[in-house]
């Protein structure tokens, strides 16, 4: 059927094409004019219309004769267009994910380059100060002479760091370097009412013998993190936890949560000091109290500010049913 249709269309085109040519020639010889056009252009337009007529007849016959053509034209093509539109919509989140992935790759490449630089520095010598390491901590009061305080703190920090680095240039007056804009910013903040803590951190890895140490100062409010008697964290334990192994795991988990909690409040200490033999205290409590729920509480034993140590004890008590 398809071959017959193709042959028929070829013959039809062959028959109509000469007719269009003859018609165009006669119109040209008759020097007819449409819309005041020149006869030659009029003949050309007639020939174009004839060609369009051939195409229209061909498509019309295909639609009438071929069911497959009708299926593809009126069903498959709209379906494919709809599928294409849906695919484009589905690609949008994938493109966003690709963008996020590329950003992550760029970030990882930066981290990798930094790691490579650190490895090179390790190979060149001994790193005595790591990037981001806190080198010196001092308190600043807004009621005092801030510029004078900063000068004293800088000199003290310089002496302290010099002992760690032992620079090859013995004649260097100062080895700490910080940006003047950082100092101006600190002076403006510290001038506000309140107590402040100045943290001087290393901006780069430093090798033993380096001439200079680039630092980045950071000013924090010297506020109360916890007060005496505050319950910092707590945990409920049941009957299945009444063994020494489970209790030790619970205590370790509770102390980790306590460290996270005080960090979130702004504490700059890295460790928590525990007071008393709380393990024995808990063990004795469990021997006297069985088959009950109980609570472990981490309680502060003192008022502690931003840079002051956190001292705690762990209490155990019954849970009221």
Description:
- The protein folds into three domains: 64 residues; 93 residues; 94 residues, no CATH class.
- Helices cover 55% and strands 20% of the residues.
- The protein has 321 residues and is an alpha+beta fold.
- α1 packs antiparallel against α2.
- The protein has a four-stranded mixed beta sheet with strand order 2-4-6-3.
State Rg: 43 Å
| Quaternary structure | single chain
- Count of β-strands: 12
Sequence of strands across the biggest β-sheet: 2-4-6-3
Blueprint of the fold:
Blueprint: H1 2-30, H2 39-65, H3 67-124, E1 127-129, E2 134-141, H4 146-165, E3 176-177, H5 180-190, E4 195-202, E5 206-207, E6 213-221, E7 224-226, E8 231-237, H6 244-264, E9 272-274, H7 278-288, E10 294-300, E11 304-305, E12 310-318
Helix pairs in contact: 1-2
Give me some keywords for this one:
7 helices, 321 residues, 55% helix, elongated, 4-stranded mixed beta sheet, single chain, 3 domains, alpha+beta
In short:
The chain is of the alpha+beta class. It contains seven helices and twelve strands.
């Amino acid at each position: 059927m398809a071959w017959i249709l193709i042959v028929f269309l070829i013959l039809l085109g062959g028959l109509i094409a000469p007719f269009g040519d003859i018609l165009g020639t006669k119109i040209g010889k008759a020097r007819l004019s449409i819309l005041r056009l020149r006869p030659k252009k009029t003949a050309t337009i007639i020939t174009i219309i004839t060609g369009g007529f051939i195409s229209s007849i061909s498509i019309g016959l295909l639609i009438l004769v071929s069911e497959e053509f009708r299926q593809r034209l009126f069903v498959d093509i709209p379906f494919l267009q709809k599928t294409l539109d849906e695919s484009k919509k589905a690609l949008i989140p994938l493109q966003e994910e690709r963008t996020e992935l590329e950003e992550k790759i760029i970030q990882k490449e930066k981290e990798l380059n930094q790691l490579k630089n650190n490895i090179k520095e390790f190979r060149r010598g001994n790193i005595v100060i790591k990037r981001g390491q806190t080198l010196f901590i001092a308190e600043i009061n807004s009621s005092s002479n801030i510029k004078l305080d900063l000068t004293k703190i800088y000199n003290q920090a310089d002496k302290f760091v010099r002992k760690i680095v032992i620079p090859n240039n013995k004649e260097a007056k100062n080895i700490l370097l910080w940006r003047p804009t950082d100092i101006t910013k600190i002076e403006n903040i510290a001038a506000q009412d309140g107590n402040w803590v100045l943290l001087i951190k290393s901006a780069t890895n430093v090798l033993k013998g380096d001439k200079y140490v680039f630092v980045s100062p950071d000013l924090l409010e010297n506020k109360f993190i916890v007060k005496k008697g505050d319950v910092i964290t707590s945990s409920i334990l049941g009957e299945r936890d009444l063994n020494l192994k489970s209790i030790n795991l619970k205590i370790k988990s509770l102390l980790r949560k306590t460290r996270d909690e005080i960090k979130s409040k702004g504490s700059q200490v890295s460790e928590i000091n525990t007071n008393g033999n709380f393990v024995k205290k808990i063990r004795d409590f469990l021997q006297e109290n069985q088959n009950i729920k109980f609570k472990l509480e981490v309680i502060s034993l003192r008022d502690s500010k931003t840079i002051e140590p956190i001292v705690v004890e762990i209490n155990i008590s019954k849970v009221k049913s």
